[in-house]
């Protein structure tokens, strides 16, 4: 089986999410990476180094610079005549592109897979991860998104794939990219961090959140996350949200501070290796999944913890 | 401009799903069902666009069992103008829903279709993008802001790194994220008024769409459960544990 994997990048560097997708695709057959973007020679060179990639296809065109699905889908659909499956990481950009491709190929997409059970059989979470479905496709081709935390990252170096330019399909003229407000941070990215410190509604306001959570995160070299309640209350921007509809994370250590543990939040972090919870309510549901719990007032416990680390 | 808003009847957001003992699915017997929360946000956004004068009529559509009428009535009570139920008791996958919606879009010719970004039962996150593909329209997914501007719509999207804005030529497809708005509650007079609004019932065959599933669900299981760990006595004990884990040392 041959699989075309859409490589996620920012036109300058390959994103980590691509590496998990390569591992997932490698369980099905031969992996080719599609690098579509604007001025992406550097990304293509990086993609060729990824272990387990047999070939890199490069589609370099200004129309692909912002990964607009209206422009990418015709390119991918054209290439799919030579492939059995198309796979993207289950990131916001992957989720934007894959269904557009699936519909044009008349294929039922399999979203957010957790494992490959057979050539056409996969597991995937439903009901916010409260149930796991095993599904088998009857379509001739497959379109899949793969959850990043469920697959080990392929080695970023060690490969030596051939790089081949492919014909571009241009601008569909339906959409244009206006701009982005992307968070700039020295901290690790949430979805690839080894340690995460997350704060909840109990943090009161944006200033208190920053003054309480950030010093602890700095001490632990951690990424900063938040519950939906904290994001809705405006303590932190939306891209901090961990949960069913935010980011799905699985770090080595997840520290939940003042988070009660609604099922929508647990859905986003319960695959973390070790969970630590600090909450003053000893009946908070977060303690039912935490390996280590500290029942304490976070406004005294967190500064004390930060001071002692 | 007309707006079409597809809505889905799902297990209520606050009900904890239970996997059936025979592993065939999640138990939906005698549990509270409601409108998918993202769809509620889509209905609300359509109503706000109408209130601002950017839309003239709101048509809500559902694909599902007869009881999905209740979901459509809820949308009508919120402020939608009329409803179409494509009635079926079969499993309808996102691709088939997108094909049915395409037929409805061709008949209704809306300027905008507003959908929830995903349903909280199957968590597929596909229907809007698929409808955009099948109709050849642009898509603005995971919207946190929607602004109609002449023949275009500007959509601010929630993406992994923050926010991004795209400009789409109308007609377009937009899917909603959580922070787009807070849906209103229907008032009692509006609930009464909704009962007399038009609700048309159709079947998938009326649209000539084959809804046979492409995926077979082999089994549905409980996820691996985490068990509660230990409660620590004080901050010093926690410092010790973190050091054992090799962080913060």
TrEMBL record, chain A:
Residues 3-181 form the Electron transfer flavoprotein alpha/beta-subunit N-terminal domain. The keyword Glycosyltransferase does not apply. InterPro entries: DHS-like_NAD/FAD-binding_dom, ETF_a/b_N, ETF_a/FixB, ETF_alpha_N, ETF_asu_C, Rossmann-like_a/b/a_fold. Signal peptide: none annotated. The keyword Electron transport applies. One of its GO terms (biological process) is fatty acid beta-oxidation using acyl-CoA dehydrogenase. Keywords: Electron transport, FAD, Flavoprotein, Transport. GO terms for molecular function: electron transfer activity; flavin adenine dinucleotide binding. CDD domains: ETF_alpha. Belongs to the ETF alpha-subunit/FixB family. The electron transfer flavoprotein serves as a specific electron acceptor for other dehydrogenases. It transfers the electrons to the main respiratory chain via ETF-ubiquinone oxidoreductase (ETF dehydrogenase). This is Electron transfer flavoprotein subunit alpha.
UniProtKB/TrEMBL annotation, chain B:
Gene3D superfamilies: HUPs. Keywords: Electron transport, Transport. GO terms for biological process: carboxylic acid catabolic process. The keyword Electron transport applies. Its cofactor is AMP. InterPro entries: ET-Flavoprotein_bsu_CS, ETF_a/b_N, ETF_b, ETF_beta_N, Rossmann-like_a/b/a_fold. SMART domains: ETF. This is Electron transfer flavoprotein subunit beta. The lineage of its organism: Bacteria, Pseudomonadati, Pseudomonadota, Alphaproteobacteria, Sphingomonadales.
């Amino acid at each position: 089986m041959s699989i075309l994997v859409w490589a996620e990048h920012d036109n300058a560097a390959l994103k980590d999410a691509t590496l998990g997708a390569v591992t997932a695709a490698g369980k099905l057959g031969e992996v080719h990476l599609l690098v579509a973007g604007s001025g992406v020679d550097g990304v293509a060179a990086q993609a060729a180094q990824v272990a387990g990639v047999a070939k890199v296809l490069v589609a370099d065109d200004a129309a692909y610079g912002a990964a607009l699905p209206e422009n990418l889908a015709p390119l991918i659909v054209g290439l799919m005549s030579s492939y059995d499956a198309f796979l993207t990481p289950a990131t916001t950009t992957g989720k934007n592109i894959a269904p557009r491709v699936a519909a044009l190929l008349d294929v039922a997409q399999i979203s957010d897979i957790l494992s490959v059970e057979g050539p056409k059989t996969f597991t995937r979470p439903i009901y916010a991860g409260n149930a796991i479905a095993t599904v088998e496709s009857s379509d001739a081709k497959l379109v899949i998104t793969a959850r990043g935390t469920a697959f080990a990252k392929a080695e970023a170096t060690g490969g030596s794939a051939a790089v081949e330019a492919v014909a571009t399909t241009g601008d569909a003229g339906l959409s244009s990219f206006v701009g982005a407000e992307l968070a700039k941070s020295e901290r690790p990215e949430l979805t690839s961090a080894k340690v995460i410190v997350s704060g909840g509604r109990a943090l009161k306001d944006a200033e208190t959140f920053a003054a309480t959570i950030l010093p602890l995160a700095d001490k632990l070299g951690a990424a900063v996350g938040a519950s939906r309640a904290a994001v809705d209350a405006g303590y932190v921007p939306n891209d901090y949200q961990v949960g069913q509809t935010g980011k799905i994370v699985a770090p080595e250590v997840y520290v939940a501070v003042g988070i009660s543990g609604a099922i929508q939040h647990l859905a986003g972090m319960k695959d973390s290796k070790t969970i630590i919870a600090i909450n003053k309510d000893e009946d908070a549901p977060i303690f039912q999944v935490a390996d280590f719990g500290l029942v304490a007032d976070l406004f005294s416990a967190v500064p004390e913890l930060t001071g002692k680390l | 401009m007309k707006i079409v808003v597809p809505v889905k009847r799902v297990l209520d957001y606050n009900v904890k799903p239970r996997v059936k003992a025979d592993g065939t699915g999640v138990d939906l017997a005698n549990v509270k069902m409601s409108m998918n929360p993202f769809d509620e946000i889509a209905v609300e956004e359509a109503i706000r666009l109408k209130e601002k004068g950017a839309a003239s009529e709101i048509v809500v559509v559902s694909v599902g069992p007869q009881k999905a009428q209740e979901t459509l009535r809820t949308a009508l009570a919120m402020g939608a103008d009329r409803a179409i139920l494509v009635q079926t008791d079969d499993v309808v996958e996102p691709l088939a829903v997108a094909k049915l919606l395409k037929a409805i879009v061709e008949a209704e010719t809306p300027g905008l279709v507003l959908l929830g970004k995903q349903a909280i039962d199957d968590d597929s996150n596909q229907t809007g993008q698929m409808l955009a593909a099948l109709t050849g329209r642009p898509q603005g997914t995971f919207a946190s802001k929607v602004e109609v501007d002449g023949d275009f719509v500007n959509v601010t999207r929630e993406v992994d790194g923050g926010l991004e804005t795209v400009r789409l030529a109308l007609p377009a497809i937009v899917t909603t994220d959580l922070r787009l708005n807070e849906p209103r509650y229907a008032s009692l007079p509006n609930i009464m008024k909704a009962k007399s609004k038009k609700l048309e019932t159709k079947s998938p065959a009326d649209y000539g769409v084959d809804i046979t599933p492409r995926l077979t669900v082999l089994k549905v299981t409980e996820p691996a459960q985490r068990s509660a760990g230990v409660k620590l006595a004080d901050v010093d004990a926690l410092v010790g544990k973190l050091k054992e884990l090799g962080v913060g040392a």
